[in-house]
Specification:
- The chain is an alpha/beta fold.
- The protein contains seven helices and ten strands.
- Strands 6-7-8-3-9-10 form a six-stranded mixed sheet, with helices on both faces. Strands 2-1-4-5 form a four-stranded antiparallel sheet, covered by helices on one side.
- Strand 4 and strand 5 form a beta hairpin.
- The structure holds adenosine-5'-diphosphate and magnesium ion.
Length: about 240
């Protein structure tokens, strides 16, 4: 199938005291192109580990991870880098923008990694800044932008080279509720416009209104629906 598919994925860590931490414990999940899926779960339930696995940043101990039918759990480090660079857009709670560079330079970063000149990358990134509503700030240093604006730059940066899978780890965690709604709405629109498979890790109760499906991860195990006390969850 196209999109992301996890089959009985297991990832354990050895903790400091010799205990095994079952971070991801038999998770099966499929996200097709054009689907936006929210993943809730208490702190430490394995959400970030699941995103790292889907990004090919670590290999599962058991089970398989496929993207467009291709195994990504056991790629060489070069193949894994190319998978992330060309197929995956990553969005983080704390944006991870490059300070001292403009919004448009940040948005074009992945293109430069692929050998484009700065001018070419900026030309290609401008329409994305337009799309996320930031064209009038394109040449501002990101240091001067608000949190909501920074997340929009980060979304433009994630999408600039046409990835097929977007992995977002608590992208509204640093935003107020109005900016969170705007960001969630933008992600949903972009997901449908560009037929992206989107996995959104979130603690934001508003997200349920923007997504196609909701899951909860608890002790590394997935269940359908929202099954966590969001008021009690600390952002991680
Ligand atoms: P979440 O993102 O839901 O907070 P994580 O995926 O970060 O959860 O962590 C899941 C569990 O795995 C936690 O118990 C955490 O302490 C543990 N863990 C995460 N990364 C490591 C690591 N590199 N080494 C050992 N334990 C880890
Ligand atoms: Mg996390």
């Amino acid at each position: 199938m196209t999109g992301l598919e996890l089959r009985e994925v297991v990832k354990h860590y050895a903790s400091g005291d010799g205990e095994i931490v079952r971070a991801v414990d038999g998770v099966s999940l499929a996200i097709k192109p054009g689907e936006l899926v929210a993943l809730y779960g208490p702190s430490g339930s394995g959400k970030t580990t699941l995103l790292l696995l889907a990004a090919g940043l670590m290999a599962p101990d058991a089970g398989s991870i496929l993207f467009d039918g291709r195994q990504i759990g056991n790629l060489s480090s070069r193949e894994s880098t190319l998978y992330r660079r060309h197929k995956v857009g990553l969005i983080f709670q704390s944006f991870h923008l490059t300070p001292g560079a403009s919004a448009v330079e940040n948005a074009g970063l992945k293109l430069q990694a692929d050998g484009w000149t700065m001018a070419e990358a900026c030309d290609a990134a401008r329409p994305w800044l337009e799309r996320v509503g930031l064209i009038e700030r394109a040449d501002y240093l990101v240091d001067r932008l608000s949190m909501g604006e920074c997340q929009r730059v980060a979304i433009a940066r994630a999408l600039v080279n046409g990835p097929r899978l977007v992995l977002a780890d608590e992208p509204t965690g640093n935003l107020d509720s109005k900016r969170s709604r705007e960001t969630l709405g933008l992600l949903a629109e972009l997901c449908h416009e560009h037929e992206l498979a989107v996995l959104l890790v979130t603690h934001d109760p508003q997200a349920t209104g923007f997504v196609d499906r909701v899951y909860t991860l608890r002790d590394g195990q997935l269940s359908d629906g929202l099954d966590v006390d969001l008021a009690a969850v600390v952002n991680t």
